[in-house]
Amino acid sequence: MKITDIKPYPIWAGGRNVMLVKVETDEGIHGWGESGVSSRELAVEGAMRHYREFLIGMDPMNAGALWQLMYRSQYFEGGRILTGAISAIDIALHDIRGKALGVPVYQLLGGKHRDFVPGFATTSQGDKDASLAEAKAFVDDGWQCVRLNWEWLTNSEVRVFEPRESIAETAEWLIEAREAIDDRIVLGIDYHHRLSVAEAASFCQKMPSGTLDFLEEPIRDETPAAYRALRTMTDVPFAIGEEISSKWHFVPYIEEGLTQYARLDICNIGGFTEAMKIAGWCEAHYIDLMPHNPLGPVCTAASVHLGAAVPNFSWLESRVTADGADLFDDEMFPVRPHTEHGSYPVPTTPGLGVEVNEDALKGYEFRFWEAPHLRRKDGSLTNW
Ligand SMILES: [Mg+2]
């Protein structure tokens, strides 16, 4: 079998841009992949065009060797844009391999460990009480893990972020939430790397031990030493890794215990080929995967297969609302994963088990979109 084309589709779907890729072959089998580099999708499309130049004519069954070729073929190796493109192509190659062999992707990865993949839901209401009510609705529906968000973290109209105000109010609210929700339910929060080491430490110290089951991305991850410092200042487990774009970047976070959950993103890390290596590394350190999954159905399907195929797994991020509204339409994605009471059934059809209507994609255009450029009250830039 030979690759005959690689077609990038940066399109607006489900309330944001989704960067899809279709890989076609001379045997009529095609695969779909997705990249996770949000808001810079056209740069990823450019990288895919470079890879297309030498991948056409190659055997898609050799996904591991093609990963090496894509990662190592440029003098300037790595970086999120390149690994975002590699991820999408690698996922599509696995879709092709599964279809060619007549097996679901998890069977290419060693078979499945579980019949369903547990997910976590995230509250989306700005108001504290409404957000807590939403969390309870998720729990009533069967979700065992809920990520709590509210005004300071969810409202994309907010343009000013004051860390000290945010951490004081959020810590107070989380204490209330912990008291209101069954202690068997796992509660976490994502600070979206908006804090400094000192602010993150203060935030954790404002809550009794056991209030939070995980704190996601309190600070940026460029300097592992900063997390090393923060790790000594709180006992709250960390969930880090959605921005990490290779096994090499993950090394200190896994080997030094800087994170207790790996928030690996299969659409950024380098697809299945790289994700499975990191999963094994995490297993050796008793760290469970908690994959990042904020985008489209191809990312979700790939993450479900990954979750089925590794022993060390906690919960998959799930884009759901308490009222059950679906973000994606059936015309564009006729077959896609759906949650059932807090988890995803594992697809049993060959490949990823997701179908994309290429003709429908052509009607959707890419939209330039910027994440909010947050500022402090004094006008200085702060992280979104
Ligand atoms: Mg996050």
What does this structure look like?
With 384 residues, this protein is an alpha/beta fold. It has two domains: 3-104, Enolase-like, N-terminal domain (Enolase-like, domain 1, 2-Layer Sandwich); 107-349, Enolase-like C-terminal domain (TIM Barrel, Alpha-Beta Barrel). Helices cover 39% and strands 15% of the residues. It has helices at residues 41-55, 63-72, 80-101, 105-108, 128-141, 151-154, 163-180, 197-205, 224-231, 247-255, 266-269, 271-284, 297-309, 358-361; strands spanning 3-13, 16-25, 30-35, 116-122, 145-147, 186-190, 214-216, 238-240, 261-262, 288-289, 316-317, 343-345. Strand 2 and strand 3 form a beta hairpin. The radius of gyration is 20 Å and the shape is globular. The mean pLDDT is 95. The structure holds magnesium ion. Magnesium ion (MG) binds at residues 190, 192, 216-217, 242. The site of magnesium ion has 5 residues, from loops.
List keywords for this structure.
9-stranded mixed sheet; single chain; binds magnesium ion; 3-stranded antiparallel sheet; 15% strand; Enolase-like, domain 1; 384 residues; TIM Barrel; 39% helix; alpha/beta
Chain-wise SSE layout:
Elements: E1 3-13, E2 16-25, E3 30-35, H1 41-55, H2 63-72, H3 80-101, H4 105-108, E4 116-122, H5 128-141, E5 145-147, H6 151-154, H7 163-180, E6 186-190, H8 197-205, E7 214-216, H9 224-231, E8 238-240, H10 247-255, E9 261-262, H11 266-269, H12 271-284, E10 288-289, H13 297-309, E11 316-317, E12 343-345, H14 358-361
Parallel strand pairs: 4-5, 4-11, 5-6, 6-7, 7-8, 8-9, 9-10
Antiparallel strand pairs: 1-2, 2-3, 4-12
Helix pairs in contact: 1-3, 2-3, 3-12, 7-8, 8-9, 10-12
Bound molecules: magnesium ion (MG).
Residues 190, 192, 216-217, 242 line the site of magnesium ion.
